[in-house]
C-alpha cells in the first residue's frame, strides 16, 4: 500500500524552490530587468515537468534522481551566467561542446567567477553532507517513498507542458537570442535551441548564385577598373601582426599623465591608421580572427571556425594566393599548435610552415606560452633568415601576453596606475597592454635594424575585444567613462585599430571609413599588386571603396551589422532593433535600413554556402 503524499513536505516543492532561487541568480546576471514574475512563469513549468517524470517513474532512489536533476539544471544555469559574463550571449549546447577548451584557459575562466555565483552550489554541498549521515538518509528515503496522486501528477504535467509551449512558441521567431531566452525562459530556450537545430538546416544557396558581383551588389560596392595604390608595395614582404585583445580606445590614451601605448601611438602617427575598424571574430576569438583575415570569409554560425567542417575544405586563402604568386609563407605563435585546432587551420588555409611552442619554448611564461618579448626576439632572426631566399615572404605573427585575465608577473609591469585601478579588470588590462606595447617597441626596432622594415608591407590589428562590457562592475564602468569621455558600449568594445606600414610612403595618414578584419585580405592584395579577380571574397579593398556593410556574428544578436554610420543591434526583428553611433556609441533613431539588415544576412548565407560546397581536402 502506498504511503500518503503530503505536497508541502514533498521533494517536488523543495527542489522547485531551490532551482527558482538559482534561476533568479542567472536572470540577475543576464537580463537587464533581472528576476521578475515572468521568470516564475517560465522557469517553474520546466522544473515541474522534470520532477513529474521522476515522480511518475521512480520507485526507488527517488531523492537521488531529484539531486541529479538539480545538479544538471544548476550546471546549465552556471554555464549560462559564466558564458554571458565574457561573451555577452546565452550559452547553448554549441558552447558546451567546446568545454575542453575551457580547461586550457582555466585562469581566464576562473577570473570571471563572482563569489555570489557559487551560491547556487550551496545546496548541493549540503545534500552531499547529509548523504554521509545515516539518520538523514533514512528520513529522505522515507519521504521519497511516498507516491504522488496520479491524477494530480497528470494535471501538474499537463499544465506545465502547456505553459512551456505557450512560453516557447510565440517567441520562437525572435532573432535576438537574449530577448528570446528572456521571453521563453532560460531552460525552455536551451531545450528549444537543441530541438530547433536538429530540425532546421542552413539553406545552401546554389553555387551559381554565389559570385563576386552578387557580394558587391549586397554591399553596395563596385570594383574600380584602375584601383588606387595598386601594386604600391609590389614584390615586398608581407608581415601581419595580430595583437591579443587590443582595442582601439588604447591608442593615444593616457592615465595619470602616462601613455599606455607609446610605441603604437608613434606607429599610428607615422603610418596609415584606420580608426573605424572592427573585429569579425566569433566564438573562437583569436583563431577566428586568423581565419577571417586569411580567407575573407565569415566565421560559422554556432561554433569556432577551427572546430567546424570548414577545416575539411580546400579553402581559398591569402597564404595560398601569395604562394601562387611566388611567396614563402609562415605563421608564428608561442602556444601549442593543437590549441584551438590550429594544426587543422594552418593546413586548411595553406601556411607553408608554422612556428609554435616547440620552437619558442616555455621560458619567460606569460598567459599560455612564452612572452611577447620571446616571441618577437626569436621571430625577427627567423624572418631575416627567410628573407635571404630568392622569394618574398608572408609571415603572420600572433602576440599572446595580453590575454584575459591580464595577470602580469610583477617584473613585467612597466606602469604605475592610480590606486582606483587596483584589483580591477580594467587596471589589469591596461598593465598587460602597456607591457605588450613595450615588447612591440623592441620588435619594431629589431625590424628596422634587420632591414625588414623598409622591405616589408606590415599591418597591425587587434584580434578581438579585451574588456567585455558585461564583465565590468559599476566602479569600472565609471573609470572607463572617465577614460574615453562617454559611456562604454558596443561600438567601443568591438573597435580595434588597423595600422598599415607602407615602405613606399604613398598611403594617406588616416582613413576614416568603416572596415573590419574581413577587409584585410583584399586590402593588402591590392597593395601587393596581387589580383583577387578569381578568388571570391567578402571583404573589400579599403583604399578603393567609400561604403561598407559588415555582418556581425556570435557576440551580438543574430542580424546585427555595421555600416558607415552605426552599429545596428537586432531586437526581436529589425523594427525594434537599436542603432549605435560609431562616433560615441550614443543611440540614434536611424542610421540603418531594413534592406541592409536583409543584405547582411544574405552575405552570411552566401559565405557559408560557398564554403560548404568547396571540395574536401585530399
UniProtKB/TrEMBL annotation:
Localisation per UniProt entry: Cell membrane
Bilayer topology: Multi-pass membrane protein
Pathway given in the UniProt record: Cell wall biogenesis; lipoteichoic acid biosynthesis
GO MF terms held by the record: transferase activity
Presence of keyword Transport: no
Sulfatase N-terminal domain segment(s): 236-530
Annotated Gene3D superfamilies: 3.30.1120.170, Alkaline Phosphatase, subunit A
Chain segments annotated as transmembrane: 36-57, 64-84, 113-132, 152-169
InterPro entries, per the entry: Alkaline_phosphatase_core_sf (IPR017850), LtaS-like (IPR012160), OpgB/LTA_synthase_biosynth (IPR050448), Sulfatase_N (IPR000917)
EC class (word): transferase
Pfam families, per the entry: Sulfatase (PF00884)
E.C. numbers: 2.7.8.-
Keywords attached to this entry: Cell membrane, Membrane, Transferase, Transmembrane, Transmembrane helix
PANTHER family: LIPOTEICHOIC ACID SYNTHASE, PHOSPHOGLYCEROL TRANSFERASE I
Similarity-based family: Belongs to the LTA synthase family.
Protein name, as recorded: LTA synthase family protein
Organism annotation: Paenibacillus chibensis
Amino acid at each position: 500500500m502506498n504511503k500518503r503524499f503530503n505536497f508541502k513536505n514533498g521533494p517536488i516543492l523543495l527542489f522547485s524552490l531551490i532551482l527558482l532561487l538559482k534561476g533568479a541568480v542567472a536572470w540577475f546576471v543576464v537580463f537587464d530587468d533581472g528576476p521578475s514574475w515572468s521568470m516564475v512563469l517560465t522557469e517553474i513549468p520546466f522544473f515541474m515537468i522534470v520532477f513529474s517524470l521522476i515522480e511518475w517513474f521512480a520507485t526507488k532512489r527517488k531523492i537521488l534522481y531529484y539531486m541529479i536533476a538539480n545538479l544538471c539544471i544548476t550546471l546549465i544555469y552556471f554555464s549560462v551566467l559564466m558564458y554571458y559574463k565574457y561573451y555577452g550571449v546565452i550559452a547553448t549546447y554549441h558552447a558546451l561542446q567546446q568545454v575542453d577548451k575551457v580547461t586550457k584557459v582555466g585562469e581566464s575562466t576562473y577570473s570571471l567567477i563572482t563569489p555570489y555565483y557559487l551560491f547556487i552550489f550551496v545546496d548541493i554541498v549540503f545534500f552531499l553532507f547529509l548523504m554521509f549521515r545515516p539518520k538523514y538518509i533514512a528520513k529522505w528515503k522515507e519521504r521519497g517513498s511516498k507516491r504522488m496522486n496520479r491524477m494530480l501528477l497528470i494535471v501538474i504535467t499537463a499544465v506545465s507542458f502547456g505553459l512551456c509551449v505557450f512560453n516557447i512558441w510565440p517567441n520562437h521567431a525572435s532573432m535576438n537570442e537574449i530577448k528570446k531566452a528572456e521571453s521563453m525562459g532560460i531552460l525552455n530556450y536551451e531545450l528549444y535551441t537543441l530541438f530547433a537545430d536538429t530540425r532546421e538546416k542552413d539553406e545552401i544557396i546554389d553555387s551559381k548564385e554565389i559570385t563576386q558581383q552578387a557580394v558587391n551588389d549586397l554591399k553596395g560596392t563596385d570594383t574600380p577598373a584602375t584601383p588606387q595604390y595598386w601594386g604600391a608595395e609590389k614584390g615586398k614582404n608581407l608581415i601581419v601582426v595580430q595583437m591579443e585583445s587590443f582595442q582601439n580606445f588604447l591608442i593615444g590614451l593616457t592615465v595619470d599623465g602616462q601613455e599606455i601605448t607609446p610605441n603604437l601611438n608613434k606607429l599610428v602617427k607615422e603610418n596609415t591608421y584606420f580608426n573605424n575598424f572592427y573585429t569579425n571574430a566569433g566564438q573562437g576569438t583569436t583563431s577566428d580572427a586568423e581565419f577571417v583575415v586569411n580567407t575573407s570569409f565569415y566565421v560559422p554560425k554556432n561554433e569556432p571556425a577551427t572546430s567546424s567542417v570548414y577545416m575539411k575544405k580546400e579553402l581559398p586563402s591569402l597564404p595560398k594566393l601569395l604562394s601562387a604568386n611566388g611567396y614563402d609563407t609562415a605563421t608564428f605563435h608561442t602556444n601549442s599548435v593543437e590549441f584551438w585546432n590550429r594544426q587543422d587551420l594552418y593546413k586548411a588555409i595553406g601556411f607553408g610552415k608554422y612556428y609554435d611552442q616547440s620552437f619558442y619554448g616555455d621560458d619567460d611564461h606569460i598567459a599560455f606560452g612564452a612572452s611577447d618579448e620571446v616571441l618577437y626576439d626569436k621571430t625577427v632572426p627567423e624572418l631575416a633568415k627567410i628573407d635571404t631566399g630568392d622569394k618574398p615572404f608572408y609571415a603572420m605573427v600572433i602576440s599572446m601576453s595580453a590575454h584575459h585575465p591580464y595577470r602580469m608577473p610583477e617584473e613585467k609591469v612597466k606602469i604605475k596606475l592610480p590606486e582606483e585601478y587596483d584589483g580591477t579588470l580594467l587596471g589589469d588590462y591596461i598593465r598587460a597592454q602597456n607591457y605588450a606595447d613595450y615588447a612591440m617597441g623592441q620588435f619594431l626596432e629589431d625590424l628596422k635594424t634587420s632591414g625588414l622594415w623598409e622591405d616589408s608591407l606590415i599591418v597591425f590589428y587587434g584580434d578581438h575585444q579585451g574588456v567585455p562590457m558585461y564583465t565590468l562592475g559599476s566602479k569600472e564602468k565609471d573609470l572607463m567613462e572617465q577614460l574615453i569621455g562617454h559611456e562604454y558600449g558596443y561600438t567601443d568594445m568591438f573597435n580595434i585599430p588597423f595600422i598599415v606600414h607602407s615602405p613606399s610612403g604613398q598611403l594617406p595618414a588616416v582613413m576614416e571609413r568603416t572596415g573590419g578584419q574581413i577587409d584585410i585580405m583584399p586590402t593588402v592584395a591590392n597593395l601587393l599588386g596581387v589580383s583577387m579577380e578569381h578568388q571570391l571574397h567578402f571583404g573589400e579593398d579599403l583604399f578603393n571603396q567609400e561604403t561598407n556593410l559588415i555582418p556581425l556574428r556570435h557576440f551580438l544578436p543574430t542580424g546585427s551589422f555595421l555600416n558607415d554610420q552605426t552599429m545596428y543591434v537586432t531586437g526581436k526583428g529589425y523594427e525594434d532593433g537599436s542603432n549605435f553611433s560609431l562616433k560615441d556609441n550614443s543611440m540614434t533613431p536611424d542610421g540603418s535600413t531594413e534592406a541592409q539588415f536583409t543584405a547582411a544576412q544574405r552575405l552570411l548565407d552566401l559565405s557559408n554556402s560557398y564554403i560548404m560546397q568547396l571540395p574536401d581536402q585530399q
